[in-house]
Specification:
- Helices cover 37% and strands 12% of the residues.
- It is an alpha/beta fold.
- Helix 4 crosses helix 26 and helix 26 crosses helix 29 (855-876).
- The longest helix has 39 residues, at 338-376.
- Bound molecules: pyridoxal-5'-phosphate (PLP).
- Pyridoxal-5'-phosphate binds next to helix 21.
Length: 954
């Protein structure tokens, strides 16, 4: 045995959980070795006949040294660029207990409310904070970034006022002083859906009845704090809606957008303790008036009750928005930025209203100091009113820049005669000497006076904030570190994460998020870079990103990659825009029909509509395969307008269709392009590739296949890879002198790209392939164990599944009045998170164990499923009551089981400790089954006011 080889491949055995139980598992499936299993699962015609071109695996220790060396190529300068991204101080208690804590970062989107009350509460805090500060009653639980949030507001207004064709109000006004990256993104989003974007000066613009909306920035791009009330009133008289992009910290001192009359407010919550990370991930916010509550993009957390009438939280209204509404969905947002919203919310919980105000006061006072010092030195400020940003007009730009750079200071240079700077929470008095010195003639030393007791307001009195905010108990309780640490822990304990048990969510790939992959994210060289710094200061980032792009191209068998989209759905949108631009360049702008199989994820049709395409649905056969006859007919029928097809491979039914190449060639024959949704790449890496099945473009969910944690509903990254012919049409970014951005930052949530990079470098070519093989082995092992107890839907001709499989629960509705939901909730009593429910087939669950689970854990899950089957059988056979049984009453909380009264026919032990293993690792759901309809009928999506807690206590 080569002991050094063993060392270099050790990560593989840490990542792949069942590596030492291979033979036992194969024998349950009835296969002799992995090769024969794979041969029977993955069709020959699409197999990759080469090794991946990825360097050999590194040990975890070697990787950490490697990434530290690369980190040194990033330079951490003192940066005052602002423009929506600010230095901030992440309180260490939040860094350690949330950002670096798998109890928070490995969670999934809180679909299963009973085991998600912790993050639901934290997200409700986020919504409350946003609603209070913006002065608007309804806020969502985060979006991807400020620029995309602005675009969501634009489309929300557009869809509200333009229900009929032809479009009567096609125009949207955007003030010239909105951040440039936002304006660029609005342009990208406006074009395909025929919105005419009109840029101008709000002071002189004429808004008439052809405008459906307008956008303003507050404080604006130059830093000016402007009273927009008159403009908003005029827009309203013409029937147009107004969205203000804004800054939550500034709103602790400034009159809120709601009070100024705005219909929506958007922005980034980054500066509330979330590291810069070279562009992300950060949580954007979106708040609006009550009348838009059913059209808000993204997730809203609402207050409801549980089966015992107790307060319980859940995702309200749009829970599965895209799945239900598909092409009529309000947006394609699925993964957003929950983890970062939780961090921002905790920052507000920790500092409270006074603390936040104090930070804002300090920032604006220091800004005033700089502004006065520059005025004294004869500089001309663009605006007399500002919060944290001033813009100087000068003919000395080059000299000032040289001096700033010599001191390792980044200022912003928005025009040939303009210099802007933004002060932030990290700026201290000493910094001001260096900063002012950049503008100094060096004849006299920098000096200024500072009155510590003074609070200043650098804006018109009419914009002084008078209204109260964050008066709720949660923002006024946790001031000491012990208190906050315990509050965070208390919430964490309510949530089932990967550090409790496996989360076998089909289509979501909840695999190991290894500590070594994540640790570097806490290093300043990676997490404190501003996204718009010059390239030379981010050499480490560029090195990693270039290498990662190459690996992703190799893995997908494609030629080029854009790392910009910051979620899977954004990747879909970016990919479709690429196809659209390609057709237009070929002289075929009319090609706008997108074929989408019935089994597709809801984001596919939602993204197609955003890209200005018409959706035509393709049928499935009884075995789950795409119906080739229907496909042929539809491709032929729309031959002249065909833009392409969106397929998922293996299909969302968990099968490698042998017909995939036929599907792609039919579409190509009719001039269409093939988009592959990469959600299921965990079944492809190293075995086949999108390029080999005939696709032209795909996105990769780096938060699935490539180990980025799900964070309780984000972050994510959805880069797209394309064939050579599509390369010229990939998204650009203003900072690179190009356009058509799909994210606010040029590399999306750049910081988390380190995770897939680490994943690829520590597994190496062989490890990556092995991970795929074990994902397939694990799924087939579980399938084989469950097959004699449940009907398994959609296997291939050899009776096998890919990396996931669907268990049919529909028969139990008739036989025992048991629904999929009852099984999902009962699994909680056994200590497990439910698999994906009712996608892609209603009444089923889809299980995806991933390669990271070991046999013992999978066995516990299978034992739980088999025990549940027996509980159903007892109902079927009349041994258990149809209404009062462990499934219908699931989940069982500690309070219910320990109550003095136990009214059920089954025992407390059967309820809470149904199998022996549960006694060793009991996870208690914190509420009983949550009532969904109650919450939607009585929508409450902010924390209750202080008085309601007092009433409860009384
Ligand atoms: C098949 C499929 N496509 C697309 C998506 C959307 O990806 P994201 O949530 O990253 O936007 C998902 C998400 O679960 C999915 O399962």
């Amino acid at each position: 045995m080569d002991i050094l080889h063993k060392q270099s491949t050790e990560f593989s055995s840490r990542h792949v959980g069942s590596i030492n139980q291979t033979q036992e598992m194969l024998s349950v499936i009835g296969e002799k070795d992995i090769a024969s299993l794979i041969n029977k699962s993955v069709p020959d015609t699409i197999r990759m006949d080469r090794q991946l071109n990825v360097p050999a695996a590194m040990t975890e220790h070697a990787y950490l040294q490697h990434i530290r060396t690369i980190a040194q190529q990033n330079q951490v300068w003192k940066t005052y660029i602002g423009q929506g991204y600010y230095n901030t101080i992440t309180p260490a208690v939040i860094l350690r207990n949330i950002f670096e804590n798998p109890g928070w970062y490995t969670q999934y989107t809180p679909y299963q409310a009973e085991i998600s009350q912790g993050r639901l509460e934290s997200l409700l805090n986020f919504q409350t904070m946003v609603a209070d500060l913006t002065g608007l009653p309804i806020a969502n639980a985060s979006l991807l970034d400020e620029a995309t949030a602005a675009a969501e507001a634009m489309t929300m207004f557009f869809n509200t006022l333009n229900k009929q064709e032809p479009i009567e109000r096609p125009r949207f006004f955007v003030d010239q002083d909105v951040f440039p990256q936002t304006k660029d993104l609005l342009r990208t989003r406006a074009l395909p859906i025929q919105i005419e974007l009109v840029e101008g000066d709000y002071k002189t613009a004429t808004i008439d009845e052809t405008f459906f909306g307008a956008m303003l920035q507050y404080p604006n791009d130059k830093g000016a704090v402007v009273d927009y009330q008159a403009f908003i009133q005029t827009a309203h008289t013409q029937g147009a809606f107004v969205v203000m992009a804004t800054d939550l910290l500034a709103l602790t001192l400034l009159t809120s957008p709601g009070e100024l009359g705005a219909d929506a407010a958007v922005g980034s919550a980054q500066r509330l303790g979330v590291p810069l990370g070279f562009g992300g991930p950060h949580a954007a916010f979106f708040a609006t008036r009550d009348e838009f509550k059913r059209n808000i993009p993204g997730r809203i957390i609402g207050v409801s009750i549980d089966a015992k009438g107790k307060r319980a939280l859940r995702m309200a209204l749009q829970t599965r928005e895209q799945h239900i509404k598909r092409e009529k969905a309000t947006s394609n947002i699925c993964t957003a930025q929950a983890l970062l919203a939780n961090m921002a919310a905790m920052y507000a919980v920790y500092h409270g209203p006074d603390g936040l105000k104090n930070i804002a006061n300090r920032i604006t006072t220091l800004t005033r100091l700089v502004a006065e010092a520059l005025k004294e030195r004869g500089y001309n400020l663009i605006s007399a009113y500002y919060f944290d940003t001033i813009t100087v007009q000068t003919d000395r730009v080059a000299a000032i820049r040289t001096k700033a750079e010599a001191q390792h200071i980044n200022l912003r240079y928005p025009g040939h005669d303009l210099i802007a700077l933004s002060i932030d929470e990290t700026t201290n008095l000493e910094d001001l000497y260096d900063l002012i010195n950049c503008f100094e003639d060096d004849k006299q030393p920098v000096s200024f006076s500072f009155d510590k007791s003074q609070t200043v307001s650098n804006w018109p009195d009419a914009l002084n904030r008078i209204s109260a905010y964050l008066t709720q108990a949660v923002f006024n309780t946790h001031r000491s570190e012990s208190q906050l640490m315990r509050y965070i822990k208390q919430l964490e304990n309510k949530d089932l994460s990967l550090n409790t048990s496996m989360i076998s969510l089909g289509s979501c790939t909840m695999k190991l998020n290894a500590a070594s992959e994540i640790i570097p994210l806490s290093w300043p060289e990676w997490n404190s870079l501003h996204p718009f710094i010059p390239k030379e200061q981010a050499k480490g980032y560029h090195l990693v990103m270039e290498e990662l792009s190459q690996h992703l191209c190799d893995i997908t068998a494609f030629d080029a990659c854009s790392l910009q989209p910051n979620s899977g759905a954004q990747g879909e949108y970016a990919g479709l825009l690429t196809i659209r631009a390609y057709h237009a360049a070929q002289g075929n702008p009319h090609r706008d029909v997108m074929l989408i199989p019935i089994s597709a994820h809801g984001t596919n049709p939602a993204s197609a509509v955003m890209a200005g395409m018409k959706v035509v649905v393709v049928k499935a056969l009884a075995n789950g395969y795409i119906d080739l006859d229907d496909l042929r007919q539809k491709a032929e029928g729309h031959s002249n307008q065909l833009a392409g097809i969106m397929i998922t491979y293996p299909s969302t039914y968990g099968v490698y269709e042998e017909t995939v190449k036929e599907i792609t060639s039919i579409v190509h024959l009719h001039g269409g392009q093939v988009y592959m949704d990469g959600a299921n790449m965990n079944a492809q890496v190293g075995l086949t590739a999108p390029g080999l099945i005939g696709a032209d473009v795909c996105h990769l969910n780096l938060h699935k296949t490539f180990a980025i944690p799900h964070g309780g509903g984000g972050p994510g990254m959805g880069p797209i890879c394309v064939k050579e012919h599509l390369k010229p049409y990939l998204p650009g970014h203003i900072t690179q002198g190009t356009a058509d951005a799909v994210s606010g930052a040029p590399y999306g949530s750049a910081m988390i790209l380190l995770i897939p990079y680490a994943y690829i470098r520590m597994l190496g070519a062989a490890g990556l392939k092995e991970a795929t093989e074990y994902a397939i082995l694990n799924a087939n092992y579980m399938r084989a164990r469950l097959a004699s107890h449940y009907d398994i839907l959609f296997t291939n001709q050899n009776g096998q599944c890919a990396h996931e499989f669907i268990v049919d629960l529909r028969p139990f509705k008739k036989s025992a009045e048991i629904e999929a939901e009852d099984v999902a909730k009962r699994l909680m009593d056994y200590g497990f998170h439910s698999p994906t429910m009712s996608f892609p087939v209603a009444g089923t669950i889809m299980i995806e164990p991933t390669e990271s689970e070991d046999k013992a854990e999978m066995d516990r899950f299978c034992d739980a499923m088999i025990a549940i089957r027996e509980e159903i059988r007892a109902i079927e056979e009349g041994k258990s009551d149809k209404k009062d049984n462990p499934l219908k009453n699931a989940p069982h909380t500690q309070a219910t089981v320990l109550a003095d009264r136990w009214p059920h026919a089954y025992t407390r032990t059967e309820a809470a400790f149904p199998l022996y293993y549960v006694t060793h690792n009991k996870f208690w759901p914190s509420v009983s089954r949550v009532n969904n309809t109650h919450g939607d009928r009585n929508l409450i999506c902010t924390c209750e006011p202080m008085e309601s807690y007092l009433q409860e206590k009384a």
